[in-house]
Amino acid sequence: QVQLVESGGGVVQPGGSLRLSCAASGFTFSTPAMSWVRQAPGKGLEWVSDINNSGDTTHYADSVKGRFTISRDNAKNTLYLQMSSLKPEDTAVYYCAPGRLYNEYALRRYNSWGQGTQVTVSS
């Protein structure tokens, strides 16, 4: 029973910052890589970032590279996404998930989504 609880979303002006958290349970959090994925209004799922099990290797989508930072605290079973210089196009529901959801196949295959947390960037 994988359970993922995303939090930290909200409404922010362009250029602002938010930190998202993902509290995980039901699996050994320290074992798999973890990903952040988002879904903008009317659009499909988009991979945002991932991090390896030990937290020393990260990857980012071109659209967020240089603005977002993924991290994890394995002792707390928690994944984070620090977002800065936010843009209106970052508006989406943000989800976390175990594994690298780097490609469309992985996104389609995964089916244990949490509720997500809404990020709205608007002036």
Overview of the structural elements:
- With 123 residues, the chain is mainly beta.
- It contains one helix and ten strands.
- The chain has a six-stranded mixed beta sheet, with no helix packed on it. Strands 1-3-8-7 form a four-stranded antiparallel beta sheet, with no helix packed on it.
- The chain is globular and about 40 Å long.
- The termini are far apart.
The percentage of residues in β strands lies in over 45%
> How many strands in all?
10
Classify the secondary structure makeup into a structural class.
mainly beta
Distance between the termini: 40 Å
Query: Secondary-structure element sequence?
Result: EEEEEEEEEHE
Number of helices: 1
Shape: globular
Kindly state the mean pLDDT as a whole number?
Answer: 96
CA radius of gyration: 13 Å
Helix content: under 10%
Major sheet description: 6 strands, mixed
Major sheet: order of its strands? 2-10-9-4-5-6
Q: Uncertain segments of ≥5 residues (pLDDT<50)?
A: none
Fold blueprint:
Blueprint (H helix, E strand, L loop, with lengths): L2 E5 L2 E3 L5 E8 L8 E6 L5 E7 L6 E3 L7 E6 L4 E6 L8 E7 L5 H6 L7 E5 L2
Parallel strand pairs: 2-10
Antiparallel strand pairs: 1-3, 3-8, 4-5, 4-9, 5-6, 7-8, 9-10
How would you summarize what this structure contains?
It contains one helix and ten strands. The chain has one helix spanning 104-109; strands at residues 3-7, 10-12, 18-25, 34-39, 45-51, 58-60, 68-73, 78-83, 92-98, 117-121.
Please name the defining characteristics of this protein:
4-stranded antiparallel sheet, 1 helix, 10 strands, mainly beta, 6-stranded mixed sheet, 123 residues
